[in-house]
């Protein structure tokens, strides 16, 4: 009897890590085996769901490429070298970002990266701020191919001490940008601070006629009201929910689908949930109208 109590006490005093290691007695031979064992560990209260999500994200990040998470050019906030300095500073303030690609005559001519904090000394400058003052404070830009895997990129961010990379397509044109925060979000989930806009802030009009950006958390009721549409509200509450149902899986960036007279393209997704969707009326529908 005393031996049984001693064994029970020993189990209770084992650290969560020791109990976690016991789950690997079957020697997993693949990533899927590890995920399955982790699921078992969650169900047995060896680790919590948050820890599972982080480990799962860390395992999967090596399979994700920069093209899968990059911010497309249409959503990049860039500083144009010929803009009036006041216009550039106002853009920095309004966006609340910390780093900005600076472009020359066209969007593929990257002159460097401007850090918002590097503008602070200019506040104490005698006289007006000039374009030359801003250009003199540019940091070198870092370029990566679309195919770069995120685990390699994260290591580059850490060892080479930079936080933003411009993504180039096979022709050398800028196809997007990736920040260290984008990579970390693939591991730990969404990271929001006091300057981030909420994903349910509302439907945004883009510079392209008839094209809108819709947060996945937008309610179907709001979507129907805005677009004068008639999406079914009975089974799902949000546009993201009905989109996943239509795809049959959680879609990745740039996956497209059309239904109910609308074309949908996923703009942002971390593979676990859809975040932002591009919406436009189907061409056939516009022709009928």
Automatic annotation (TrEMBL):
Superkingdom classification of source: Bacteria
Keywords, comma-separated and alphabetical: CBS domain, Cobalt, Magnesium, Repeat, Transport
Domain CBS: 70-129, 137-194
UniProt-listed InterPro entries: CBS_dom, CBS_dom_sf, CorC_N, FAD-bd_PCMH-like_sf, FAD-bd_PCMH_sub2, Ion_transp-like_CBS, Transptr-assoc_dom
One Gene Ontology CC term in the entry: plasma membrane
SMART domains according to UniProt: CBS, CorC_HlyC
GO molecular function: flavin adenine dinucleotide binding
Homology family: Belongs to the UPF0053 family.
PANTHER family: HEMOLYSIN-RELATED (PTHR22777), MAGNESIUM AND COBALT EFFLUX PROTEIN CORC (PTHR22777:SF27)
Physiological role: Plays a role in the transport of magnesium and cobalt ions.
Protein name: Magnesium and cobalt efflux protein CorC
Gene source species: Marinomonas aquiplantarum
């Amino acid at each position: 009897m005393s031996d049984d109590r001693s064994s029970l006490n020993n189990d209770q005093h084992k650290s969560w890590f020791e109990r976690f290691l016991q789950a690997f007695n079957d020697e997993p031979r693949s990533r899927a085996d590890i995920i399955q064992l982790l699921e078992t560990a969650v169900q047995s209260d060896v680790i919590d769901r948050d820890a599972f999500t982080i480990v799962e994200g860390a395992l999967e990040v090596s399979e994700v490429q920069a093209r899968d998470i990059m911010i497309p050019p249409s959503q990049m906030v860039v500083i144009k070298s010929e803009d009036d300095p006041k216009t550039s500073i106002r853009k920095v303030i309004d966006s609340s970002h910390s780093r900005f690609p600076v472009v020359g005559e066209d969007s593929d001519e990257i002159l460097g990266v401007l850090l918002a904090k590097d503008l602070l000394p200019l506040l104490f400058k005698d006289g007006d701020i000039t374009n030359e003052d801003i250009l003199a404070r540019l940091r070198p830009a870092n370029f990566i191919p679309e195919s770069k895997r995120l685990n390699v990129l994260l290591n580059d961010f850490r060892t080479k001490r930079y936080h933003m990379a411009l993504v180039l397509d096979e022709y050398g044109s800028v196809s997007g940008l990736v920040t260290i925060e984008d990579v970390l979000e693939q591991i730990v989930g969404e990271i929001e601070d006091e300057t981030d806009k909420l994903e349910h802030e509302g439907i945004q009009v883009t510079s392209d006629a008839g094209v809108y950006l819709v947060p996945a958390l937008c309610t179907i009721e709001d979507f129907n009201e805005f677009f004068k549409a008639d999406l079914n509200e009975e089974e799902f509450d949000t546009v993201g929910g009905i989109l996943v149902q239509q795809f049959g899986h959680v879609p990745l960036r740039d996956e497209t689908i059309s239904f109910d007279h609308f074309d949908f393209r996923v703009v942002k997704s971390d593979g676990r949930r859809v975040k932002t969707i591009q919406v436009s009326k189907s061409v056939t529908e516009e022709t009928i109208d």
